[in-house]
């Protein structure tokens, strides 16, 4: 019989055990080993059955066991010690509190998904895991962050396989009352709500759930409330599901509803109001519109409110291709905003203009969420050095007239939260060498460029650790593989071979991620005969563990999964290569440490960052990757291998895959496997162990989320907070008026003539040449602009590279025609082909970038001396 009503029955903890409830509801347990060990000791069997989730565990423990523990003095001492440790963690000063004054009082961090723990399945892949690691690292550093997301009742899908290897999706219903969440309530105890207006007089209501991530509150909005009609209740049903309107409503709830939830939370708790709003990808971009509406309601006009909002907003793009950006029909946007829907105080054309693709090749009928995110943020970044470059190229059309390198999008390379991803055995080894507290600080806070103490760990201990982790992975794989085959319909009598799957002494390669086509799950299958030879080599075999999910609507991705599964099902190789379904955080935490090689072979440059290899590296796993994302930035032969990229312009995709797959096989056969199996005088693979040591010493400090969050604080959050404070209603109005005046007058701004004191085509290194430039400013004054000389080496097309910029100074008063003279000097500090030009930019004390206004004046072809000087 099916129940007609569902209840969650919570245990009543004896008074001495009450701290268990607080420990269970603060997600610090997900990265704090002592807290997890404490919960495991409550009931080891129930702990495993509860999926290592303390909230579920406490709902399963027998009252008799709780009574027994409440009388156990040793357990109570452990409990009190862990509770006291949490209290110290939550209340003590950390890195942020030791920084100079001026940092933001609070930062609101918005993301469509958060990967905190497998017990809270609100993530699909790298974007969510990165967001979760960002919150955890902010907590460890003491950064006053508030996370904002949605609570998906079905989470992301669970993956199984059919008998023939086809991916199947399942959407289990999540009950918030059974998750590590508490409901945000008003002072009278009623649930706190936020509401959005929908077309036709309807409304979208959502309650606010709180997940406490260490020191960081994470607010999750849930539309499954009785006040909503069926359509509105389903808005937060599943992550990345539904059609365009469904996605639009999710993103409106995340952005607009999220700001309202933050305001509600701060009002109820006294938490400082955020000075900086960080938009993690374009999905939350509507938060800027809500903040503009707030300011308009206080009397600011739209343009002044826009400048104020931009000053305190940071936008992070994770997408290296236009196809990965959410875009909506303009008519759909128009229907959901305006007098009869949401944000009635803002004219709909102003909203539509924010997302219009006003650049060559743009679609005028589509509303682009990333374009809106860039226009609503004064500061923006990509997530690796290479991705920053790709992003500047992708969005360069929004800043016409500027070289790609001047597009105001910087980069902060992603990092990973080491306490979450480092195996306990690795942490214990480090703690034995340098002490528990120093080891924890090195992983969580970072700050050192090297971990030199790794050099003191004997080779034997490193190798024994690597084998232990590999053996644990082998046992995990056999258990998961058996469960998968039983789900596919196999009986136990057919599965005796699983006990021989993988070998703890064989070189183990891991490959696990989402399965879009550009990540090339099946590149390893390009030459199946050669792959079989590698797997079955009599002296130097390799074994491969593969996992990954294709998007439910991506049949091409599902076919890639099926192709891999069918190869792995072959009785000749199934003991050497396996596909594990339902890749998630719990699996990943065992997979990364147990592999010797982490494989990544995307089509360059389509991997924005790719953090899975970072997590593997922190456990002493070596990377084998295409030079893309973070690996392009930090690769060194000391600690890994680079797969050569066949990126010639004349190559088609098929030929490129053939070449890169062959290079992959060559590396494995000729360099990687021989090094793994090579033994020195002491019977150990000395050169392999040295690479492991170098990975930990040199890569370890770089890949930390602590390093990443410190960069965000210092390079983006702190400047954004200063801009937020500087852009008062009066100064925001001044800046908006100045921008409007400059744009209206810019048509009359010109570089009319350029003269140099150098009359020959050659000059000696160290020569100083003078520049005299005649410019027209129209209705503008010298205070409104900066006239610059731009110089540097030139390429074969006379384009200036590695430019040096020197401001020129006004000389004298305007002539009778209103023209002005500017003068300055250039020092020729580089040899070879050298050139310079002149340009005029708007200048204002409140601009974050010279490109911000989006206008520039360059010399005409006949401005004199070839619009500059060229020396060869």
Q: Secondary-structure blueprint of this entry?
A:
Elements: H1 19-24, H2 33-42, H3 44-49, H4 54-60, H5 63-70, H6 73-91, E1 107-110, H7 126-141, E2 145-150, E3 158-161, E4 167-170, E5 182-183, E6 193-197, E7 203-213, E8 216-222, H8 230-233, H9 244-269, E9 276-280, H10 287-297, H11 302-311, E10 313-316, E11 327-329, H12 330-336, H13 348-354, E12 366-368, H14 369-375, E13 379-382, H15 385-394, E14 410-411, H16 418-421, H17 424-434, H18 436-444, H19 459-487, E15 507-512, H20 528-535, E16 542-547, H21 555-569, E17 577-580, H22 585-594, E18 597-600, H23 612-617, E19 622-626, H24 629-634, E20 640-643, H25 653-677, H26 686-699, H27 705-726, H28 729-745, E21 750-756, E22 768-776, E23 785-794, E24 800-807, E25 809-811, E26 819-827, E27 834-842, E28 869-871
Parallel strand pairs: 1-2, 1-9, 2-8, 9-10, 10-13, 13-14, 15-16, 15-18, 16-17, 18-19, 19-20
Antiparallel strand pairs: 3-4, 5-7, 6-7, 7-8, 11-12, 21-22, 22-26, 23-24, 23-27, 25-26, 27-28
Keywords: Allosteric enzyme, Carbohydrate metabolism, Glycosyltransferase, Pyridoxal phosphate, Transferase
Family: Belongs to the glycogen phosphorylase family.
Catalytic activity: [(1->4)-alpha-D-glucosyl](n) + phosphate = [(1->4)-alpha-D-glucosyl](n-1) + alpha-D-glucose 1-phosphate
């Amino acid at each position: 019989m099916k129940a007609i009503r569902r209840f969650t029955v919570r245990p009543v903890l004896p008074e001495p055990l009450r701290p268990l409830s607080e420990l269970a509801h603060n997600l610090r347990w997900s990265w704090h080993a002592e807290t997890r060990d404490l919960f495991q000791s409550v009931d080891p069997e129930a702990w495993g059955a509860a999926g290592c989730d303390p909230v579920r565990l406490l709902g399963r423990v027998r009252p008799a066991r709780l009574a027994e523990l409440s009388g156990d003095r040793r357990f109570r001492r452990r409990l009190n010690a862990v509770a006291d440790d949490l209290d110290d963690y939550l209340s003590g000063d950390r890195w942020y509190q030791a920084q100079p004054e001026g940092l933001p009082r609070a930062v609101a961090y918005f993301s469509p998904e958060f990967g905190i723990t497998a017990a809270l399945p609100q993530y699909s892949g790298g974007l969510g895991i990165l967001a979760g690691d960002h919150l955890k690292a902010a907590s460890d550093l003491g950064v006053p962050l508030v996370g904002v997301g949605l609570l998906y009742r079905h989470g992301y899908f669970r993956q199984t396989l059919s008998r023939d290897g086809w991916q199947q999706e399942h959407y289990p219903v999540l009950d918030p009352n059974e998750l590590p969440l508490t409901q945000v309530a008003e002072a009278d105890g009623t649930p706190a709500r936020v509401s959005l207006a929908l077309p036709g007089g309807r409304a979208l209501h959502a309650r606010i759930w709180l997940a406490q991530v260490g020191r960081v509150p994470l607010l999750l909005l849930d539309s499954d409330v009785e006040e909503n009609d069926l359509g509105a209740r389903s808005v937060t049903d599943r992550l990345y599901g539904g059609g365009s309107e469904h996605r639009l409503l999710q993103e409106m709830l995340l952005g607009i509803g999220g700001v309202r939830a933050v305001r509600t939370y701060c009002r109820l708790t006294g938490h400082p109001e955020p000075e900086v709003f960080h938009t993690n990808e374009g999905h939350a971009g509507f938060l800027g519109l809500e903040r503009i509406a707030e300011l308009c309601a206080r009397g600011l006009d739209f343009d002044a409110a826009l400048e104020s909002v931009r000053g305190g907003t940071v936008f992070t793009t994770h997408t290296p291709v236009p196809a990965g950006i959410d875009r909506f029909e303009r008519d759909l946007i128009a229907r959901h905003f305006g007098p009869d829907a949401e944000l009635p105080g803002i004219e709909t054309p102003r909203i539509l203009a924010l997302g219009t693709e006003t650049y060559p090749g743009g679609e005028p009928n589509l509303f682009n969420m990333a374009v809106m995110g860039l226009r609503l943020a004064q500061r923006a970044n990509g997530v690796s050095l290479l991705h920053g470059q790709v992003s500047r190229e992708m969005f360069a059309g929004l800043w016409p007239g500027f070289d790609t390198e001047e597009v105001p999008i910087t980069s902060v390379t992603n990092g990973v939260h080491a306490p979450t991803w480092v195996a306990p055995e690795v942490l214990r080894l480090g703690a034995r060498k340098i002490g528990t507290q120093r080891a924890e600080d090195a992983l969580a806070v970072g700050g050192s460029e090297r971990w030199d103490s790794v050099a003191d760990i004997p080779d034997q201990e490193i190798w024994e650790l690597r084998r232990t982790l590999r053996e644990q992975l082998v046992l995990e794989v056999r258990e998961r593989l058996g469960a998968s085959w039983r789900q596919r319909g196999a009986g136990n009598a057919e599965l005796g071979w699983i006990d021989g799957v993988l070998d703890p002494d064989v070189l183990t390669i891991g490959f696990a991620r989402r399965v879009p086509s550009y990540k090339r799950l099946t590149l390893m299958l390009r030459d199946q005969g050669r792959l079989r030879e590698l797997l079955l080599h009599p002296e130097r075999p390799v074994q491969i563990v593969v996992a990954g999910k294709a998007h439910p609507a991506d049949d091409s991705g599902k076919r890639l999964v099926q192709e891999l599964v069918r190869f792995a099902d072959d009785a000749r190789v199934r003991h050497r290569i396996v596909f594990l379904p339902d890749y998630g955080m719990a699996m990943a935490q065992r997979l990364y440490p147990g592999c010797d090689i982490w494989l990544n072979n995307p089509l360059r440059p389509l991997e924005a960052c790719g953090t899975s290899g970072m997590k593997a590296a922190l456990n002493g796993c070596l990377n084998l990757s295409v030079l893309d994302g973070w690996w392009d930035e930090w690769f060194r032969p000391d600690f890994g291998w680079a797969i050569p990229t066949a990126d010639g312009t004349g190559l088609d995709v098929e030929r490129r895959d053939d070449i890169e797959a062959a290079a992959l096989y060559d590396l494995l056969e000729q360099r990687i496997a021989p090094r793994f199996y090579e033994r020195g005088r002491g019977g150990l693979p000395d050169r392999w162990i040295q690479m492991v040591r170098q990975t930990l010493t040199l890569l370890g400090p770089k890949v930390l989320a602590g390093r990443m969050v410190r960069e965000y604080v210092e390079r983006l959050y702190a400047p954004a907070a200063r801009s937020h404070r500087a852009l008062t209603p009066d100064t925001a109005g001044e800046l908006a008026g100045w921008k409007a005046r400059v744009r209206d007058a810019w048509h009359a701004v010109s570089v009319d003539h350029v003269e140099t004191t150098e009359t020959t085509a050659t000059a000696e290194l160290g020569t100083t040449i003078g520049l005299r430039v005649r410019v027209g400013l129209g209705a503008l004054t010298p205070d409104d602009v900066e006239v610059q000389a731009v110089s540097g080496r030139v390429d074969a097309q006379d384009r200036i590279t590695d430019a040096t910029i020197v401001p020129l100074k006004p000389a004298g008063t305007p002539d009778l025609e209103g023209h002005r003279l500017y003068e300055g000097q250039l020092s020729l500090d580089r040899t070879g082909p050298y050139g310079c030009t002149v340009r005029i930019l708007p200048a204002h004390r409140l601009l974050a970038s010279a490109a911000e206004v989006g206008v520039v004046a360059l010399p005409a072809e006949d401005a004199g001396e070839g619009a500059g000087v060229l020396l060869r």
